[in-house]
Amino acid sequence: MTEAQPAVARDAVIEVRDLVVFYGPREILKGVSLDVHSGEIVVIMGGSGSGKSTLLRHMIGLERPTSGTIKLLGNDICGMSELELYEFSKKMGVAFQGGALFSSMSVGDNIMLPLREHTSLDPKTMEIMLRLKLEVVSLAGFEDLMPSELSGGMLKRAAFARAVIMDPMLLFCDEPSAGLDPVVSSALDELILRLREALGMTIVVVTHELDSAFRIADRIVVLDHGDILTIGTVDQVRNSDNERVQDLLNRRFEEEILDPDAYLARLTGEKLLPERERGI
Amino acid sequence: MATARESGNGALRLAEAAGQGTLRGIEMIGYGATLFGQAVYWLFLGRRHGQVVRAAPVFREMMQLGIGAIPIITILTGAIGIVLAMQGITSLEAFGAEHQVVIMVALSVTREFGPLITGIIVAGRSGSALAARLGTMVINNEVDALRVMGINPVRFLVVPSLVAMMVMVPVLTIWADLVSLYGAGLYITSELGTTMTVYVDDTLSYLTVEDVMHGVNKSIIFAALITMIGVLNGYSVKGGAEGVGRVTTSSVVQAISAIVLTDLVFVFAATRS
For residue B210, how many C-alpha atoms fall within 13 Å in the half-sphere facing its CB? Predict the structure, then answer.
């Protein structure tokens, strides 16, 4: 595992250390450690079931890990109380996969919700901030529509606007290009790059889209079965000699190692005896 | 050890299912109580943590579940009042006591039918809507979105509904009492040849504040039950749109069962003392 150093040494704004997550008896993350530096765009990649969404849910404080620590901007979010976490979340924005806009509110009300809840700005100022952010995501004039009247790409852009309305220092995006056509999806990539440039945010993107990852990433983290396969710049990952990384990049699917006994047991629906009892 | 499922023993399987159902029920009561506690906490202490419960959503909910329910409650409780009067006169005629129907109707309506019918209608109209709305929000990650925006979902989503329910269900119950008594009065006065003034005077002389409050107090408990059951079902949604349908149905069934059983306990306690 090689960790590329950023060109200029910067402070790590996100530090994940030995993150272990169990869902019941299943180990989803097996001791993941990674740093994200200020102003960086880091893309977390991996196939389905690699644990990338789980990693994201833990990084944004939605779930607590079995063990390990996550520090955002120097604060250990795993040790925070619920109230401290609410206070801290004002410094970060999250754009969810499906947008997660509230269907009972207009686009404008959705985007202004964090302002209304956390600030005492007057309505006029809020509206100006709303229009500013709508301009950034190219949705000017759409504030009065309901989320159900927007297309998939517009929903995601509105979700970005809501995520950055409080000018957060950290932005997390879950599968920004999932389910979108290539043109809309590359427009969203442009948007992510623009947000970093305009607002100087540190951005973590979870995706399984290779093209998008190569286009926006400063560094790529490749996850597989709950382990980090490699962390590196786009070129480093492309030229990685790790076989699994190359499999993922070349869209080769993983051959399942077949155990005849296990296969038979699966077909007959019987419980498989532990290996030692089968004399293996 | 073989489980009941493997041994194929019907009785054992039934016992196991009953046991698991009971456990789930107790678990749900525990969750409900915790959620209620949290809702009360955020309602009164939210401001201290910058999590204010705003008036606008509370009023919106009040309009929806309260004012919106008035037509159906008027029709149904009016009909129930007339039915009670008809049944009452027919049964009491056997003893030549049909004039006693006024006290019978007055007590049945204020102590039982008013709160019960209101509770059942609100459970069907608004408890289910609450479960469906929350269920959809959970599936669309909207509840997660609230949390990462630093907004407590209980304060933002549950408290307005709970407050609106606990204010509007008693109000609707009083309305149901009035409509029901009026409906019964229409039938009784025409059947027994008295006037509405006499009927109203009779009713007022029989009824005590305690009778009306017995019904109203019950309706406040029903309101809390409907909200908590709707919310718990909505939060526990699994499996997409089909899951939302399932929790909607189960919230109605559970809320109505809870209302009737609570009523049973309440009446038992009230008639003993």
Answer: 3
Specify the pLDDT at position A8: 46
Do B226 and B127 contact (CB within 8 A), yes or no?
Answer: yes
What is the mean pLDDT of the segment spanning A33-53? 90
Which stretch of DSSP H or E encloses residue A245?
helix A243-249
Angstrom distance (rounded) from CA B201 to CA A213: 80
- Beta strands A26-37 and A12-23 are antiparallel
Tokens of B179: 């409509």
How far apart CA A234 and CA A111 sit, in angstroms, is: 33
The neighbouring-strand residues paired with A228 are A223
Write the pLDDT tens digit of every residue in A67-112.
999 999 999 999 899 889 999 998 999 999 888 999 989 999 999 9
> In this prediction, does ipTM exceed 0.90?
no
Phi, psi of B20 (to 5 degrees): -65, -40
* Under-70 pLDDT residues of chain B: 1-8
CA distance B179 to B109: 10
Q: For testing the chain B interface, which of A102, A109, A174 should be mutated: the one with the most B CBs within 10 Å?
A: A102
CB contact under 8 A, A60 and B140: no
- The whole-angstrom distance between A148's CA and the closest CA on chain B is 13
Nearest CA of chain A to the CA of B26: how many Å? Answer: 22
Which has the closest alpha carbon to A164: A144, A124, A189, A135? A135
CA separation, residue A174 to residues A14, A221, B240 (Å): 17, 14, 19
- The two counts, helices (H) then strands (E), for chain A are 10, 10
Chain A residues touching residue B142 (CB < 8 angstroms):
100-103
For residue A89, list chain B residues with Cβ-Cβ distance below 8 A.
147-150
Q: Are the C-beta atoms of A147 and A110 separated by less than 8 Å?
A: yes
DSSP H or E segment with residue A229: strand A227-232
CA dihedral sign of residues B263, B265, B270, B272: positive
In the numeric block, which tokens belong to residue B265? 């306990």
What pLDDT score was predicted for residue A6? 46
Identify the residue among A86, A88, A206 best suited for mutation to test binding to B, counting B beta carbons within 10 A and taking the highest: A86
- What the block records as the tokens of B227 is 């909200």
Q: Which residue of A has its CA nearest to B42?
A: A83
The model carries a pTM of: 0.85
C-alpha span between B130 and B235 (Å, rounded): 10
Report the alpha-carbon distance of residue B211 to residue B259 in Å, rounded: 19
